[in-house]
Amino acid sequence: MSVLVQSEHGCVLDSRSLIDQGFTRCLRWKDGQRSHVQCRFKGQWFQMCRSHEAAAVDAGHVEVLQKANKPAKKRKRKHSELNQGEIDSQIFHEKIRSVVSEGTKSLLDSSRSLGFLNGATDTVKEPLPVHECRLAALCEMAKELPLVDDEEQEHVQALVTEDGCTSHVDLFSRVTENRADGATVVTLMGEEYVIPPHASFLLSDFTRIQPLVHYGRKFDLIVMDPPWENKSVKRCRRYSSLPSSQLKRLPIPLLTSTNCLVVTWVTNRPSHLRFVREELYPHWGLEVVAQWLWVKVTTSGQFVFPLDSPHKKPYEVLVLGRYRPSAGHSPSSSETSEVPVEDSRLIVSVPSALHSQKPSLSEVLQRYVGADASCLELFARSLQPGWTSWGNEVLKFQHTSYFTLTPADDRADIPKDEDKPTVTL
Fold first, then answer.
1. Mind listing the GO molecular function terms for this protein (predicted)?
2. Does 376 fall in a domain?
């Protein structure tokens, strides 16, 4: 299990273990030949041993030495007054501070008593890959192709043919399904990707999302991490952002089953949080049922940023809502027996060094939607076993450069790693 500890405060996750689920044994197709391999996500991505503050202090010592002999420059006076956004952020932080502080301490104490988050790291020190993701650019190119009449278009396709061929796969206008019971390593657009078992995906942007609607599935759980607009995104240009108002165009009501649980990752900008709670969810017919916090810690259990830092906070917000049908709908017995979602829960984990990679919520949310729930991730950058995923970089973190692939004996069963026990307190 990847949920290491559970209590009334929330849970502690092993994010890497969540990714590795379903990859113990993979079938690899290359040049028409197949072989068996074991796949594991590279653990170095989750080796945050020290907080950003400690790392900055060390870097600062070097900077101080470099500047020691330089003449002092006259600095411009900075304005001390806070703007309205900063004031709102401060108010929000004070409101949740005790929940984060006390809940995280309790969960970390339990984790350490069981041997987790004690500072231990992998001994593997091989360099991390530098992979240039070209998927968003390819989506832009695909938009130049003419749209096919919906009545003529097949909206679903298999990932691999019986002879292992993937060259026929149209990733941009059809939902692609891995129908195998195990993971599959395939070559797509000249690059190798690891596709989890029974995963489905559509590689497209906002303008070509219709195949997902025509896919015919109604989802019991939808998780999304929108590319929110903010200053840091504009400065670094790592990905394109989306104006909040454009999110209303997502066809959520067409994708949801009754009582579908919708979970949205929100930045710590109060205006984004207000927008989701007061505009976006009501627009889609969703009722806000809870607000959770993802708390990011190092491998030794320290906050990745000081809790009271005026700039970066060691947490992010998740808003959970239930889809409520229109008036006049008569709910079935299964619809009226939904599991209530607790408010102010914490999800504690070591974050990935990969920009904007969030922990999987599949195990955490299972009790609220059921083990057989149909699940969808929007704005995804990776895939999950049994889930449907959509986004213009939906395969990004499935590239084989992020994994360690080990040849396996085709005839032997590969023993699974022992599951870590889930401890409920």
1. nucleic acid binding; RNA methyltransferase activity; site-specific DNA-methyltransferase (adenine-specific) activity
2. yes
Q: How many CA atoms lie within 13 A of 208 on its CB side?
A: 28
- pLDDT by residue (tens digit) across 123-155? 566 666 667 888 988 888 888 777 666 555 688
Counting the structural domains of the chain, the total is: 1
Residue 264 lies in a domain: yes
How is residue 167 annotated by DSSP?
T
Taking alpha carbons only, the member of 410, 344, 370, 350 closest to residue 19 is: 350
Query: Containing domain of residue 345, as a range?
Result: 3-50+86-327+336-410
pLDDT tens profile 48-70:
877 766 655 444 444 443 444 45
Q: What are phi and psi of 233, to 5 degrees?
A: -65, -40
Q: List, in sequence order, the alpha helices (H) in 22-172.
A: 52-67, 84-113, 135-142
Please state, in angstroms and rounded to a whole number, the distance separating the CA atoms of residues 284 and 297. 34
Structural domain includes residue 397 = yes
Q: Say which CATH number the domain at 138 has.
A: 3.40.50.150
Whole-Å CA distances, 309 to 197, 234, 267, 312: 42, 22, 15, 6
What residues pair up with 7 in beta bridges, in sequence order?
Answer: 10
pTM score, two decimals?
Answer: 0.87
Tokens in use for 225?
Answer: 């991490």
Q: Is residue 423 part of a domain?
A: no
**How many Cα atoms sit within 13 Å of 53 on the Cβ side?**
15
Distance CA 414, CA 410 (A): 9
Residues β-bridged to residue 377: 223, 389
- Both tokens of residue 37? 């391999």
pLDDT at 338: 85
Q: In whole angstroms, give the CA distance from residue 57 to residue 59.
A: 5
Whose CA is closest to 379, among 365, 366, 394?
394
The alpha carbon of residue 2 and the mean position of all alpha carbons in its chain are separated, in whole angstroms, by: 15
Residue type at 338 in one-letter notation: E
